[in-house]
Design goal:
single chain; alpha+beta; five-stranded antiparallel β-sheet; two-stranded antiparallel sheet; 2 helices; 7 strands; 33% helix; elongated
């Protein structure tokens, strides 16, 4: 199972997912409709013991066509097209909500097979790896900066102590 960075509730942004999706680059067949039977979830990982939709771990998201607080991250939307259930087409759209409210569509799949989710695993894994690499790199940058500042503070404290010592000598 892969995991996504944990976003705190304070990291949620006020956004209309559907409106942002319609502004995303590219020509997508989906429109993130909230019609009955359609669903959307915030992807948090993959369970490879399953091959259907249950393999994609995450919480379902509501209010995708209204302005609401949503977490930046990877989303999967399923849209059913057509009124005849036997000939209904499903469109699976994998997209990322950026912290600035913009949406990047990663892929769109029209697949009616029972193991449709497996087709999305590589993109999900690539997204998760990119997020984890960013976190690791940023954590290292912050740690280096802290070490540099702590070193500079130690140097300044030594210099201040030397000045204090010199002042005491000149007073005596």
């Amino acid at each position: 199972m892969n995991s996504q960075p944990n976003y705190a509730m304070s990291d949620s942004i006020l956004v209309n997912l559907q409106a942002s999706f319609l502004n995303a680059a590219g020509f997508w067949e989906s429109n993130l409709s909230e019609k009955p039977g359609n669903w959307c979830k915030l992807v948090q990982g993959i369970d490879k013991t399953q091959t259907d939709g249950y393999s994609i771990i995450g919480d379902f998201v509501s209010q995708i066509a209204q302005t609401a607080y949503q977490q930046p991250g990877l989303y999967l939307h399923c849209q059913k097209k057509g009124s005849n259930k036997a000939q209904q087409k499903r469109i699976y759209t994998l997209f990322a909500l950026q912290p600035n409210g913009e949406i990047e569509v990663i892929t769109e799949s029209k697949n009616a097979s029972k193991d449709w989710a497996v087709e999305l695993w590589p993109e999900i894994e690539a997204y998760m790896a990119k997020q984890n690499n960013y976190s690791t790199k940023r954590r290292q940058e912050i740690q280096q900066r802290i070490e540099t500042i702590e070193f500079e503070l130690r140097q300044l404290r030594v210099e201040l102590a030397a000045l204090d010592f010199n002042d005491q000598l000149s007073e005596n």
